[in-house]
Design brief:
Elements: H1 2-19, H2 54-63, E1 71-73, E2 83-91, E3 94-102, H3 110-122, E4 124-127, E5 130-133, E6 135-137, E7 140-145, H4 151-166
Antiparallel strand pairs: 1-2, 2-3, 3-7, 4-5, 6-7
């Protein structure tokens, strides 16, 4: 009886320890919202000092505190882009995702033409049966998603869109 109880407790302990090792939770960086009252409101960095490519756009967005955290290369060929990066971070307690893609407008394949035409006409493109809201600026496409409808989050989304639209090649 003692051996069975000991065996049962060992199996139970092993099961609980393995269940607790399901992998670490993803730790996202937090983008702090500057408050006007604290005097921390940052003057926007001009887009003129940045390369007119995807890397320059990402640097510009980072320096303007529109995004934070590690940028991850995306699978961009599915939409006909020539490059793409995603940022995931926390803002006001909400998980935000910002994606930036670059297109070669002089050498578009059918996927690129379909994606860009859809965004121009409808404000979104479809991938895997999902409509993805997006914004175009020349060779670049931005997808910005924040599930929060909080006033601060909405204002941040507008700031990010404005910065994106100000970026010129």
């Amino acid at each position: 009886m003692t051996k069975k109880l000991l065996l049962f407790l060992t199996v139970l302990l092993l099961t609980l320890s393995l269940a607790a090792c399901g992998g670490p939770m993803e730790q996202l960086e937090t983008l702090e919202a500057p408050s006007a009252s604290s005097g921390l409101e940052q003057e926007p960095v001009s887009p003129t000092g940045f390369d007119g490519n995807l890397a320059g756009l990402c640097q510009y967005m980072e320096q303007n505190q529109a995004v934070t955290g590690e940028k991850v290369e995306m699978s961009y060929k599915e939409i006909g882009a020539v490059g793409g990066f995603r940022y995931r971070f926390k803002f006001n307690g909400s998980t935000v995702q910002a994606e930036f893609y670059e297109f070669d407008l002089d050498n578009q394949d059918a996927k690129a033409q379909e994606c860009l035409s859809s965004v121009k006409e409808k404000g979104f493109f479809t991938i895997l049966s999902n409509e993805v809201p997006a914004v175009l600026n020349g060779d670049f496409l931005m997808v910005y998603s924040d599930p929060s409808k909080d006033e601060g989050n909405t204002a941040q989304a507008e700031k990010v869109k404005s910065l994106f639209m100000d970026f010129k090649q």
